Amino acid sequence: MEHITLLIGIVIVTALVFDFTNGFHDTANAMATTISTGALKPKVAVAMSAALNLVGAFLSVEVAKTISGGIIDETAGIRPEVIFAGLIGAIVWNLLTWLAGLPSSSSHALFGGLIGATIVSVGFDAVNADKVVMKVLIPAVAAPLVAGVAATLATRLTYRLAKGRDEKETAKGYRAGQIASAALVSLAHGTNDAQKTMGVITLALVAGGVVAPHSDPPMWVIVSAGLAIAAGTYLGGWRIIQTLGKGLTDIKPAQGFAAQTGAATVILASSHIGFALSTTQVCSGSIMGAGLGRKGGVVRWSTAGRMVMAWCLTLPAAGLVAGGAAFLADQGDWGVATVAVLGLAVSGGIWLVSRRKPVTHDDLDEVGERQPAEPAGVVTAALQAVAPPPAGTLPAPVSPVAVVTPEAGRAPAAAAS
Fold this sequence. Notes:
Layout: H1 2-36, H2 42-56, H3 62-71, H4 80-100, H5 106-121, H6 129-161, H7 167-207, H8 219-235, H9 238-247, H10 253-273, H11 279-293, H12 301-329, H13 333-354, H14 367-370, H15 378-384, E1 402-403, E2 413-414
Antiparallel strand pairs: 1-2
Helix pairs in contact: 1-2, 1-4, 1-7, 1-8, 1-9, 1-11, 2-7, 2-8, 3-7, 4-5, 4-12, 4-13, 5-12, 6-10, 6-11, 7-8, 7-10, 10-11, 12-13
């Protein structure tokens, strides 16, 4: 019993470490566009987001139930070692994608880790495949698309309503709206992502016989998970904020307001029904949608492509790492100790590599200058062809035809009409 109690304690601490990495990995979801448009200073933005993530953790436990008794059958002989291995897989993938500055899904890293470890240790029967499809895979595909379409339509509507008004004046109002919508996204993030850690800890308590199956998370679990994700959020995942804030598209205040409002609506609705979706994918989809919704806006499809590739790899990659960790952990105490040492070594190595070229909040003011220009692709051009022009924009005059003179080195001259 003492061994089980110690192991459960290790699992709880590891789950809170994952929650912490989830916080700084996903700070960009709420605050990237708010920081990039200048609505809030970076440190103020992450402090506000951290506080609201903590509040959001207390608003619901539906997603926690999906984790603790949904995708994994908690009565199928799941042991704390399995959960520990799953968490190691999720943490390693979170840190790797953070190092690369890719806004991948912490949620899917957790799901992949738990599923991979469970399959290796217990078998496929312990995974509720129908729940995985209905509450993980379908939302993973649908949520960013729904959020992206909503943000595109909201952006076009926003510019249409502001038509004829001074852009600088309307920008002030939109920045204020961005602060409110960013607060809503942070609150929504707490209701969704903090609960995932609550569910994992509850699953460990059930596996160790501490609480009965199908129990709600105890209050101390809710408090500790909320504090861990808030602390991680306050540190700020500046690398990923850099990617979402300017690397994906250039966001104006009106677009930021539309993107964040759409994302918050999708996340809160999913939390209410217990869908454990990826807030990262929702917010990324909203930002791309907002980029497509503005006439003249450009989505950097190379960056978007790398993000989507990371999304597709997250579940299997975290599952493979967790599966290997579960195989070692099944060997006994020495196996669990080996997994812990390897997890610490890999995490420390990633941190040391990140120090070679650190990214801080001071770098965010220059991020736009460092982003290479990318021409609009076929998709962007086609969608923007029917978009209304931004408010106050006049049609561009027709340029005279340019004629290149035969003399080498001379500037082109305008043809006489």
